[in-house]
Amino acid sequence: MAIDPAVIGTSAPSFSTGAERGRLRFFAQATGQNEAVYTDVEAAAAAGHPDLPVPPTFLFCLEMDNPDRGRFLTDLGVDVRTILHGGQEFAFHAQAYAGDTLTFRTEVKDVYVKKGGALEFIVRDTHVTRDGEPIATLTSTIVVRDPKAAK
Amino acid sequence: MTNLNTGDALTIQAPKITRTALALYAGASGDHNPVHIDTDACKAVGIPDVFAHGMLSMAYLGRLLTDWVPQARIRTFGVRFSAITPVNTTPVCAGTVTKVEDGLAHLDLTVSLPDGTVTLQGSAVVTTD
Q: Whole-angstrom Cα distance, residue A11 to residue A14?
């Protein structure tokens, strides 16, 4: 299976969501984060934050909440059981907080092949904004393993 | 305020990645892929057991960064996932300042397992003040 390079530059429809305080506390618990600013609104306020800060990698979790997230790969004919998360990058522009409405717009940045087609790479950028203000850019590399090419 | 100089290093020991830890991370992150939480589903496709979400290890690395400097100072943070993290292991996160230039500190980051396997390799750029 070869992914058509014509997908480079295409964008998925944007979607908006927000981080709830309760979920951020749950994420802090699940990642062993004991610093009070991430769970206690008063501690956050004392440190100068308007609400609980969204921790560095949590924007990726919010991106995963997109109900259409799986459609991109399905439309390309990729079996999700053959994919691996190869890499993840974040560029931060401004701090996001609990209660913010964040908009996620994902575009395909690159598609390339390695190992004679056994591995295909899909690189996508997700631009996160709050009322049009840039918050972060997430760059995700997905590796698609072609079981047939590997044999 | 934390000053950063070339050669400065910080490590944090992640907690043991139990099945409970994976269930909690699946719930909190929204990543419900059964390969991380359901041994039966793993065996059905030939995977011997559940393994950790790569993004859980990246979250521990993020905690290394926010333990070191206030989050607002992090400009970029990226990793490559180089090996699977099996269940019931205890990863170690390490960061080293490799260069300080123009008000920015460049950090090399790794997550490794007790047997020496490097599971994540990454870097970050943080402001020096």
A: 8
Three-state DSSP at B58 gives helix
Distance CA A78, CA A98 (A): 34
Q: How far is CA A82 from CA A25, A119, B63, B70, in A?
A: 33, 10, 30, 38
pLDDT tens figures, A98-148: 999 999 999 999 999 988 888 999 999 999 999 999 999 999 999 998 766
Chain B residues closer than 8 Å to A55 by CB? 59, 62-63, 66, 71
Query: Residue B79 in contact with residue B102, Cβ under 8 Å?
Result: no
pTM, two decimal places: 0.94
Query: Partners of A103 in the beta sheet?
Result: A16, A129
Q: Which of A27, A55, A87 is nearest residue B81 as measured by Cβ atoms?
A: A87
Determine the Cα–Cα distance for residues B32 and B26; give it in Å rounded to an integer: 5
Crossing angle (nearest 10°) for helices A21-30 and B54-68: 100
- On chain B, the residues whose CB falls within 8 A of the CB of A90 are 76-78
A65–chain B nearest CA distance, Å: 7
Residue type at position A22: G
Question: Rounded to 5 degrees, what are φ and ψ at B79?
Answer: -140, 160
Amino acid identity for residue B25 in this structure: Y
Spell out the SS3 assignment of chain A. CCCCHHHCCCECCCEEEECCHHHHHHHHHHCCCCCHHHCCHHHHHHCCCCCCECCCCHHHHHHHCCCCCCHHHHHHCCCHHHEEEEEEEEEECCCCECCCEEEEEEEEEEEEEEHHHCEEEEEEEEEEEECCEEEEEEEEEEEEECHHHHC
